[in-house]
Prior knowledge:
Layout: E1 3-7, E2 10-13, E3 18-25, E4 32-39, E5 46-51, E6 58-60, E7 68-73, E8 78-83, E9 92-100, H1 105-108, E10 117-118, E11 122-127
Parallel strand pairs: 2-11
Antiparallel strand pairs: 1-3, 3-8, 4-5, 4-9, 5-6, 7-8, 9-10, 9-11
Amino acid sequence: QVRLVESGGGLVKVGGSLRLSCAVSGVSFSGYDMAWFRQAPGKEREFVAGVSWSGGWSTYGDSMEGRSTISRDNAKNTAYLQMDGLRPEDTAVYYCAADLRSSTWKSEYARSNIYDYWGPGTRVTVSS
């Protein structure tokens, strides 16, 4: 059974930092490209960051570029999202997603419908 479980969300003040984790089980983690998305109330799910299966290539959405760092540890089957300089508009549920390695991922990473597996999400609330 494939499981993705996010953790690390919570309440943080403006300007604060959080580190989200996504623990993956039931699949060969290194066989998947990973991404973080977020969804705020009343808004569509949006791409935040993605990292290739090896960790050698990463990309960021406009919303958190320069304020976030995605990484992964294939030995621990875990992906991470370090978020700094948090703003009230970063308040959302954050989801991790896994996509079986493919040659097209680097051109399609922002499309949520390409991902094979999703976690249930972790809530991040940024207070002013």
